[in-house]
Every structure is written in structure tokens, then in C-alpha cells.
Write a structure and sequence with these properties.
Keywords: Membrane, Transmembrane, Transmembrane helix. By secondary structure, the protein is α/β, with parallel strands linked by helices. The protein has helices spanning about 40-55, 75-80, 140-145, 165-175, 200-230, 240-245, 250-265, 270-300, 305-330, 340-375, 385-400, 400-415, and strands spanning about 1-10, 15-25, 30-35, 60-65, 90-95, 105-110, 115-120, 130-140, 190-195. The protein has 12 helices and 9 strands. Helix 6 packs across helix 7.
Length: about 425
Amino acid sequence: MVLKIFFPQCCNRAESGLLVGRWISGHDSAVVLAVIHYPFIPAQVKQYIQQMQAQSGVDLSVLGSWSLPKDGQEGMESFLRDLSTIFPQERWLQIRRQFGKTGFSCEVLSRDQKKKKSEEDDGDAEQEDEEKVIFVHYEQRKVMLSQLHPVEAQESGDGSEPHSELRQVFGTVARSQPLFVLDRYDDGPLRSTHWQSEGREASIVVELLKQASVPLGLLLGRMLSVWTWICSARILSVFPLRFLSSKLSTCVQLSYRTERLQTLGAPQADAHMDFMRKANVLVSVLLDVSLGVLLMLWLYRDQHIAMLASNMVPAADSVAQQLEELLQWLMGAPAGLKMNRALDQVLGRFFLYHIHLWISYIHLMAPFIQGILWYGGLSACLGLTFALSLLSDMVALFTFHIYCFYVYGARYFCI
């Protein structure tokens, strides 16, 4: 006789405790749903199983014990064996595993305490008079989520049973959802191992993302089409707007990103080169956005934005002071050279006045610098290149006086 045990992979390294599951009706098999860890109080375990039965409608019970011995737990197996008298069953499963071994060993104890041994090893032979045990390892998460899209049972006239063994296993796991609510963050007296024992938040987020993927894709496609229509509007072809869009790095980056999104949103191409091009564009966009998110996390952590804003004005004052000292030196006799003093004074005072205007502009903008950096840092979620483009435009605006010096100097020497 063969006993089939459906064992979840998430419990392969669980701590020693009790096996909670259900015997499959009409079949000589059992499905393990969770492992309740030691230490525990048997009365609390019975009360917990009764609550789960009432909530899920599944005939849950303690199938046996699970033993993964550790240092200082030499008598754990005998203790777990004695629990069969507290949780009476027709058959009591005592499954053991040792570190470093892939196989399980199982003892099936009947009510009259007659042992029937069976082992799942790589090459060990079983005796003919012993009850054989087959372990079927299943991934509990996939079995659970498979019920999100159930396949309707079709009536067949071949006389097959309507409730097969696998169907009962899938149904048992799906209906046992209240059992998977208990995780390691709960403060209750019991601890268990199952597919959500590490926390339910991640699973909830994954399922919400799956449910929202289709409407989110439609929304992004609609927003992309609206943005493309705005970019192609004739009002943006007017001279001032067209000139600014060609000079600002942010506008250039926006147009470049729009082209990439249009490439990704294009119909599926049959050519292999087009497919590889889409894949390269997708990888580059994801990498760009990932680096931008990392930059944004760094900016908004440990008051980095406030530190940058507070250091910007002193740095500008230091640069202005060095420029003024350089101009004062050039207005005199630099390196002993005899210069045109009248022209030196005119040009020197002219540039000193522009430095004064620039530093006054910086001090005027000082109260708003932190806010500009704070809101500008949010653009990093669009990608690292977008944030760098915005930074380039900000640096160009803050150093506009250098461009003025260049224009004045070029005009002077052209004369």
C-alpha cells in the first residue's frame, strides 16, 4: 500500500513542530499546509485549528510531527512522538529530516502504535511488508494563486470521478487561506511556517500589481498619446518656444524620452532586429530609471538637500571674491606689464558690476534654492539622465554671468 504526502517546499527547512493539514477523502493521501513550531501548548493548537476549520470550511487536523533536530534538541523526536496521544488520529505521520541530506524519513504510526516505516532516500530499498510513502513536493504559492483563474469543471461521460486527488489538493490549499494569515510578525502564542510566513505585505503588493497592470498600461498609453499630441502642436513651433526648447537640456531630454516610449509602444515587430532594438531601449530606460530612483533616495535621506542648499551660497561668495581679486589684479599692473589704465578701469569696473549683480541675484534666490532642489529632485524618478539635464539647466541659469562675460569679450575684440 502506498501513502502519498503532498509536502510544501516552503516547509523543507521549518523548525520542529506539528504538521497541520488534511487527509484527502477517497484517496490514501494527505496534504500538509503548515508547520506549527515548538514550543506550543496543545490546548492552544486545538483551539487554533478549530477556529481555522470554522473560517475556511476545511476539515483540518494535526497530521503528525515534523522534526528538524538542532543542537540541544536530542529528545525532540520522542516528545513529538508522544503528542500522538494528545492529537488522536488513525495514522500519525512522524517526518524527520537532517541537515545536509536531501531525503526525508517517515514513520507511520497507527492507532495501535504499530510502526510502519518508510524512507524517501536516493538509493535505499524498501521492504515489501512496509507501507511505502511517496513525497510530492509542491510550491504552495503557485497552487494558491492558481485558484485566481479557476477552470470550470466540464461534465464528461466517461465515468471519471468528478473530484480527483489533485483537484482536492488544489481546493484544500485555496480554501485554507485563513491558515496563511498567521506570520512571524504576529504576537500570538503560535508560530507557523507556510508560503506567507515571512509576511503578507509582499504578496498583496504583487497581486495588486498584477490586477492593475492592464489598466495602468492603458493609462500610460493614453498619457503618451496626449503628450505626443502636445509636442506636435503648432504653438510650440513659435520662435521663442522653439528657441528655448532647443537650448534647454530638459526639453531635449523630454523629446528623446518621448521617442523611446513611442518605440516601445509601437506594434509588435516581426523582424528580429526590431525586437532586439525594443529590448535594448527597454533595458536602457529601466536602468536609467533605477539609477534615478537611487539618486532620489540619496537626496532625500539624511538632509542632503538642505546641506547642498546651505553650501551653495558660501561657494558662490567664494567664487565671486576670487573673481573680484583677479579683476583688481588685472586693473593694476599684472606681472609688471604697463597696460592702458583708462581702458583697464572701464572694463574692470564693468565686469565688477556684473559680478555684483550676479552675487545679488544668488542672494535673492537663496531662500528658494532648497525648494528648487527639493522639487527638482523629484524629477530623478523619470531617470538619471533627466535629473542631470535639469541640473545642467540650473547650473546654466546660475552661471549666466559667465556667458555675459564671453559675449562682452567677444564683442570687444571684434571691434
